[in-house]
Specification:
The protein is an all-alpha fold and 98 residues long. The chain is 80% helix and 0% strand. Keywords: Signal.
């Protein structure tokens, strides 16, 4: 009985580490755009909205972990929509900066 529980615990730990690394790398990985950073810094309202969207993503990921990822895909969908919103915020900041 202990072995399946250990496997489950190890899997949960690995998944939380991977998802934590993925959220920590948002904006600074492969697709990093210094121009977008500059544009966001020129528009503090958009920058704050993006910051709050990231906080919402972080909290949704915490909720997923707390509920053992048993949310029927709704949390993952919400996270995807928040990331899409962040992308649109960045695009709007770039558009009005140029």
């Amino acid at each position: 009985m202990k072995q399946p529980l250990a496997v489950l615990a190890a899997s949960a730990l690995a998944l939380s580490l991977v998802s934590g690394c993925a959220s920590a790398d948002v904006g600074y990985g492969y697709n990093y755009d210094a121009g977008a950073d500059y544009a966001m810094s020129r528009h503090p309202n958009i920058e704050q909205a993006s910051f709050h969207a990231q906080q919402a993503i972080d909290r949704m990921q915490a909720a997923q972990r707390a509920n053992h990822y048993d949310m029927n895909g709704h949390a993952a969908h919400a996270i995807a929509l928040l990331r899409e919103a962040q992308s649109e915020m960045e695009a709007s900041a770039l558009t009005i900066t140029r």
